[in-house]
Design brief:
The protein is built from six helices and no strands. The protein has 138 residues and is an all-alpha fold. The protein has a single domain, classed as Four Helix Bundle (Hemerythrin (Met), subunit A) (Up-down Bundle), CATH 1.20.120. It starts with 11 loop residues before the first helix and ends with a helix.
């Protein structure tokens, strides 16, 4: 069996955290088991992934907060990109919040309806960044 065959593939890979949450009622701020799989158990790579994600999440949130509410296409693209990065880092709460924000922004003609979803995304990002800071001393 090759190394690649031991990792879960999409869409099953995306369903595992959701299934775990449904079964246990618990969603970790960061899924460190998932992160370890993504980094093939390399602690230096885990730290690098978390540091890069921490920086990207902060920059993405700043950019989203500064966008014109009518610029839904840019906001949706940025949210989709952040969601993909969040999945790699094991920040599934951020990924879910990104997708919810994207859905609201795309469906709203003015973009103003996205404010509560953006606030929720900001709270998720702050929570994850705090944990990353504790883990890697950022």
């Amino acid at each position: 069996m090759s190394k690649g065959s031991t990792q879960l593939k999409s869409p099953l890979a995306e369903a595992v955290p959701v299934a775990r949450e449904a079964r246990t009622g618990f969603r970790p701020t960061l899924d460190l088991v998932h992160l370890a799989r993504q980094s093939l158990g390399d602690k230096d790579r885990e730290t690098e992934i978390l540091a890069l994600f921490d920086q990207q999440a902060a920059q993405a949130m700043d950019r989203l907060a500064s966008l014109d509410p009518r610029d839904g296409a840019v906001a949706a693209d940025l949210a989709r990109m952040l969601a993909a990065s969040a999945r790699i880092a094991g920040a599934f709460g951020i990924a879910s919040a990104c997708l919810a924000y994207e859905a609201v922004v795309v469906s709203s003609s003015t973009g103003e309806a996205g404010r509560p979803a953006l606030d929720h995304l900001g709270a998720e990002i702050a929570r994850v960044r705090e944990v990353i800071g504790e883990l890697i001393g950022a």
